[in-house]
Specification:
The complex is a heterodimer of chains A (290) and B (388).
Chain A (H helix, E strand, L loop, with lengths): L1 H28 L6 H17 L4 H27 L4 H23 L16 E5 L2 E4 H23 L1 H11 L1 H6 L4 H27 L3 H5 L2 H10 L5 H20 L1 H4 L5 H17 L8
Antiparallel strand pairs in A: 1-2
Helix pairs in contact in A: 1-5, 1-6, 1-8, 1-10, 1-11, 2-3, 2-4, 2-8, 3-8, 5-6, 10-11, 10-13
Chain B lengths: L8 H6 L20 E7 L9 H15 L8 E7 L4 H14 L4 E3 L6 H11 L4 E2 L20 H16 L5 E4 L9 H13 L5 E3 L8 H9 L4 E4 L4 H9 L6 E4 L6 H6 L5 E6 L12 H10 L6 H18 L7 H10 L26 E7 L2 E10 L6
Parallel strand pairs in B: 1-2, 1-3, 3-4, 5-6, 5-7, 7-8, 8-9
Antiparallel strand pairs in B: 9-10, 10-11
Helix pairs in contact in B: 2-11, 3-4, 5-6, 10-11
Chain lengths: 290, 388
């Protein structure tokens, strides 16, 4: 059991990164982006397709990230242009449609789970240490470090810089932000593009652990949303913790025979419990809900 | 509640429906019109096998060019069910009622058997699927696929691990689809009965996400060989990280693809059990005919197209043996009374027969991943048999 929990924890860094991407988009542009991992997977597959053709890995990574940034930017522009005044639910529904379309396109372009498996570069494969029979490779530490970097970096940027302030204004009151002279649409598209590129890097980093075909990688959105829920879509450090919690729960559930069959439900159970917990608090705190 | 986006994910699944293929009405095929054979294939949707109806048609075209059967031509009527149960049942009704097909051959759908088994029994029509996917394909009175299917294949994989590779600690790590009942459990019991051995570790609930937790459990159990049927890429990446280079992983037929051979790291031991002669080597016994048909008709070379050619060949042979009128009744009767057909592309002879469950093809030919490709191992088909 302890081994399984440790094994689960090693995937926590990757899950945390996925959750952080969701929270990042939500905090910066106030959209729950269901198409996020599909966009990242698209960039990642452009990258492996190019490396398979013999292109240099770094150049391919750059082109892949640029593709994801461009795609995400286009989606962002569409949302800003046509759905700016709509409710969050509507915007989320638009991204669900984009997710379905991108997944269908990706499966068509890159193949399904048997024909579309690809070898992703795994530069951080060397073992660092062993705990209770579980080999911990560098990639686990790299994922965790990247997650901490995003948590601290974005946290500081939002609270300590002028750009951060503008971004917060844009996310919370886009109309007012524009009135006071913040170039809202341009900034929003920039944020979308940036988040797209970061998501692509995250997908490439987690691919050797979490999926080698387009469907599996695009489908990581369900885990990402579960993790983001832990941080209530706002709190970056809690989201980081959420990744570790989900990993830990997965490890634990796979080691207990009685609940092994239902382990796929774990992330959704986390979502349900948290939704219930939050709505329970709102009875006392309705003034703050929007 | 502030935000209730979660439920929205359900929309995703529903949105993927494609347009249905409209079918024209045609004559019901008397005793001198064409002999109509139906097939339900996944062409769109999650389980896509477009090469299957093409290969079946290619076989029928060949027979027709040589004069047909008793002067009558064979016509394939293929319907796409897009892995949608409603469309699958509609397709079966259309084929039986409107198209008046005499039998089904070369079906390749992930839902057909489960959805339509009762219809086939009620209408007294037989189906010889190119690929039996769901468990109902192997447990129905009027369905007998030309592939071993996941259950007998699992027995063969475990048998290969314990008897050919001679490992004492054999384990299983499987993703078992809901609704497949005790099929895999029975396959394990069959292996236990044949070999007198028991599994060192069993996990039939391998899920998505990081495979490390399953691999660590396998490592702790000291497994020397592991039968495995889920996603290949991350599994082998992480098995390598966990230092499991000495474990023999035996993959099910669904993992036998060129793409998967490429994602297995060179120092890992990966075998795969195939359902027909490995399609990657056209010189193997029985593969010559299949290879000729798919190459000359420009059809993708896949294991599924092997099943397609075999099911078409089986049907043609049975039809040729019918004396008198070829009708649904005479075809069903011929299948139920047929003599076994030796078909070198599989491990055991094909026979339909009168029983209530059919799984005639047993055994598997094993291949090993070497330098990014599958290498056929010597020794031919491994057909599980009791120890002498």
């Amino acid at each position: 059991m302890l081994n399984s929990v440790i094994a689960g924890l090693t995937s926590g860094g990757g899950y945390a990164l996925l959750g952080l991407c969701v929270v990042l988009t939500y905090r910066l542009v106030a959209v729950v982006n269901f198409a996020m991992t599909a966009v990242g997977a698209m960039g990642a597959f452009v990258m492996v397709t190019l490396t398979d053709e013999g292109l240099n890995v770094w150049l391919a990574l750059l082109i892949g990230a640029a593709t994801a940034a461009l795609l995400s930017g286009v989606f962002g522009a569409a949302l800003v242009r046509w759905f700016a005044g709509h409710r969050e639910g509507t915007k989320a529904a638009v991204t669900v449609a984009l997710y379905v379309a991108l997944t269908a396109l990706g499966l068509r372009l890159f193949g399904g789970n048997t024909t579309g498996a690809r070898q992703f570069p795994n530069p951080f494969d060397d073992p660092v240490f062993t705990v209770g029979g579980v080999v911990v490779p560098q990639s686990v530490l790299v994922s965790l470090a990247f997650a901490v970097l995003i948590t601290l970096g974005v946290g500081l940027m939002l609270t300590r810089t002028r750009l951060g302030l503008k971004l917060q204004a844009l996310s919370e009151r886009p109309g007012t932000a524009e009135v006071v002279g913040i170039p809202a649409p341009r900034l929003a598209v920039g944020v979308w593009a940036g988040v797209g590129a970061i998501t692509m890097l995250v997908i490439v980093l987690v691919a050797p652990r979490l999926g080698s075909d387009f469907g599996a990688l695009a489908g990581l959105i369900s885990t990402a949303l579960a993790v983001a829920m832990v941080g209530a879509f706002r709190n970056l450090p809690l989201t980081l913790a959420g990744g570790l919690i989900v990993g830990c729960l997965e490890g634990m559930s796979s080691s207990l025979d009685s609940i092994q069959k239902y382990q796929g439900v774990v992330p959704f159970l986390v979502i349900l419990v948290l939704l219930w917990w939050r709505s329970r608090r709102e009875v006392w705190d309705t003034a703050h809900s929007r | 509640m502030k935000r209730t986006f979660v439920r929205t994910s359900a929309i995703a699944a529903a949105a993927a429906l494609a347009l249905s293929v409209a079918s024209g009405c045609s004559d019901s095929g008397g005793s001198d019109g064409p002999i109509k054979i139906g097939a339900i294939n996944g062409i769109t949707g999650l389980f896509q096998t477009p090469e299957v109806p093409k290969a079946v048609k290619a076989v029928f075209d060949e027979v027709n060019a040589a004069g047909g059967i008793n002067g009558r031509k064979i016509e394939l009527v293929s319907k796409d069910d897009a892995m949608d149960p409603a469309r699958s049942s509609q397709a079966a009704r259309q084929l039986i009622k409107s198209e008046n097909v005499v039998a089904l051959a070369g079906s390749s759908s992930a839902v057909d058997c489960g959805v339509n088994r009762a219809t086939y029994s009620k209408e007294k029509i037989v189906s010889v699927p190119a690929i039996g996917v769901d468990p109902a394909c192997f447990t129905s009175p009027n369905i007998a696929p030309v592939n071993p299917g996941p259950y007998t294949l699992t027995t063969a994989m475990l048998y290969y691990a314990s008897e050919t590779l001679k490992h004492d600690k054999v384990c299983i790590a499987y993703t078992v689809l809901p609704g497949s009942g005790g099929g895999i459990e029975n396959a394990i019991k069959e292996w236990e009965k044949l070999t007198g051995k028991t599994l060192a570790h069993k996990n039939l609930a391998v899920g998505q996400g990081d495979p490390t937790r399953y691999l660590v459990a396998i490592k702790n159990a000291g497994c020397q060989a592991v039968a495995y049927n889920a996603t290949v890429g991350p599994w082998f990446q992480q098995a390598k990280t966990q230092g499991m280079q000495k474990v023999d992983f035996i993959l099910a037929a669904n993992s036998y693809s060129d793409a998967n051979a490429k994602v297995i790291p060179p120092d890992m031991n990966a075998y795969a059990g195939t359902e027909w002669q490995p399609y990657t080597d056209p010189t193997l016994p029985g593969n010559d005919r299949w290879s000729k048909i798919v190459t000359s008709n420009n059809i993708q070379k896949t294991a599924f197209s092997q099943g397609a050619v075999m099911s078409a060949d089986v049907v043609v042979q049975v039809l040729k043996g019918i004396k008198g009128d070829i009708t649904r009744e005479s075809v069903t009767k011929a299948f139920k009374e047929m003599k076994p057909i030796n078909y070198p592309m599989v491990g055991t002879p094909y026979v339909f027969g009168p029983g209530n469950e059919h799984n005639p093809i047993k055994g598997s030919q094993f291949v090993k991943a070497e330098n990014g490709a599958w290498k056929v191992l010597p020794g031919g088909f491994t057909v599980p048999a009791p120890k002498k």
